[in-house]
Design goal:
The chain contains 7 helices and 8 strands, in the order βββαβαββαβαβααα. The protein is α/β, with parallel strands linked by helices. It folds into 2 domains: 173 residues, Aminopeptidase (3-Layer(aba) Sandwich); 35 residues, no CATH class. Helix 3 links the parallel strand 6 and strand 7. Helix 1 crosses helix 5 and helix 6 crosses helix 7. The radius of gyration is 19 Å and the shape is globular.
Length: 248
């Protein structure tokens, strides 16, 4: 297996948050999407995380360095616009250039300098995903700014998945695998959100947020981590009490 998808941030580290956009949720979505699409196309891939969990530097990089190639999925902040890619100072940047071209061809904005490297004060790679991942060629992708001119557009799941598909196409090109677009109807159309959403208990996309989940877990006496997993102890307990008529 050559590829691994790194979902940046996660758990207690939300990444960039602005205007109803939360980086850690988008990066998880991106990693899982690309991993699934690569599997459909016959390209072996793995992920660093599959849920909203905290993943510190050491366990993240230790897993990544077992693979040959990594995409570290991120969203940017600072009010700008467009995608950018960052590669190691020891990489030639050819894959990243092809990725930038896929964004351009798909009509997504790219940064004025969409491809670059960065050194630290010691002359090594600045980003730990380059510096601490061994021989794995890691590409950091910053899809878009959560607080920029496209901040409303990226709330649209179809818009986001179009960006992720650019990564899939670039990987297919690199691997010499025939690209096949997602099946029609495979990607659900985002549902319009009602106005005046509650300020507490629900986040923008209508899912229970970690505070609400943690409160339920505490109430039912199950482990408290703010995450509804599959299977979920808190959901099982809720179902049991509803069936027994003792939800008090």
């Amino acid at each position: 297996m050559s590829w691994i998808q790194d979902a940046g941030h996660g758990g207690s580290d939300p990444g960039a948050v602005a205007i109803g956009n939360m980086e850690k949720m988008y990066t998880l979505e991106a990693a899982l999407y690309v991993d699934r699409r690569l599997s459909e196309l016959g390209i072996a891939s793995d992920t660093t995380r599959t849920s909203d969990v905290t993943l510190n530097t050491e366990p993240r990089t230790s897993k990544v360095k077992k693979y040959k190639k990594c995409i570290s999925h991120h969203f940017n902040a600072g009010g700008g616009s467009g995608a950018e890619t960052i590669h190691s100072i020891y990489s030639d940047g050819k894959f990243e250039q092809s990725l930038v071209e896929e964004f351009r061809k798909a009509g997504y904005p790219v940064r004025p300098r969409p491809l670059y490297t960065r050194k630290n004060s010691s002359g090594g790679d600045f980003y730990y995903m380059h510096r601490l991942t061994g021989t794995c060629r890691t590409t950091i992708v910053e899809y878009e700014f959560v607080d920029g001119p496209q901040s409303e557009k990226i709330k649209d799941k179809t818009y986001r998945e179009g960006m992720y598909e650019c990564v899939v196409r670039a990987i297919c090109q690199e691997e010499g695998v025939r690209y096949v677009a997602p099946r029609s109807g495979q990607t659900p159309t985002p549902i319009s959100q009602p106005s005046n959403l509650p300020k507490e208990n629900l986040i923008v996309d209508g899912y229970l947020n970690p505070k609400t989940i943690s409160a339920l877990q505490s109430y039912f006496g199950t482990p408290v981590d703010g995450i509804i997993s599959k299977p979920s102890l808190v959901i099982k307990e809720l179902q049991r009490r509803l069936n027994n008529g003792n939800l008090e």
